[in-house]
Amino acid sequence: MHNSTFFVAAVAVAAAVFGISTYIGNDYIYFAGYVVLQYIVLATAWNILGGYCGYVNFGSAAFFALGAYSAVFVHKFYPLPIPALIVIGGIVSGIIGFGMGYLTLRLRGVFFAIATLAFAVVLQTLIINWDYVGGSRGAYIIRPSDFPGLGSYIEYLYLIMLALAVIAVTTARVIERSRLGYGFAAIRDDELAAEAAGVPTLRLKLLATSISGALMGMAGAPFPYYIGYVEPASTFGLAYAVNSIAMPMIGGTTTWIGPLIGAILLGTLQQIATVTISSVVNLLLVGVLLVAFVIIAPNGIVGLVQERLRARGK
Fold it and tell me: Lower Cβ count inside 10 Å, N or C end of the chain?
């Protein structure tokens, strides 16, 4: 299936979920759909740095939490509409992403990965000791029960996350097919050769960390309104860091469509497991699938399909 066709089909499925949910009046479908769309944004954002540039980031949860706590801070200071909070969360996370990149991108491989993990730990410690945003106790966000013109407020949050998912995937696709994407690919394939050829590697990597961080922060900004209560253990949770890495790897990291496929597949399976078994099996499910794909399809679903098509062509 052509990439554009798949993207249109994915948006159509998300819109169909909205229509079906409205018809049957089951708000849980919106809650589940919101989570899947949220993971599409996070997986796509991670892939801009981890897949396109080849720099594995273990700090995804930190940027997600930055967006969430930016929204909490602004809500306590002066409540604003969620779209404005998303913009603020994206700006804050993008700036922090730039700063983190400036300090850590001279490291490579496992050293960079460890540095991003340390960044998440330091940021979580700061949030735990910041009483204004709730500290270790957490903070409650009382959201309206209804949104004018839509009905349930969760429908409004679902549509917002759908728009964010479209923005994130579109951004990744535009980057992949631009000069910027070719620069990222040169860094991923051989950074030393790219530097020798005149590619401004540090500038491109800083741009990648800023864009990736901003998108993750935008995904986190609506989270306090979705869950109603924010505390460090949930926003800095292992699930966000693990899923952000596993979903692109299962789908395929060298193309924009891989994270989309991985997030839809793995996110949907997790929501089904939550309802039928228990939410505690989610990380187990991620681990099993990740190990299976590393063995069977190390280049992800997209890579597996491409290999089969090339073999068939020969």
Answer: C
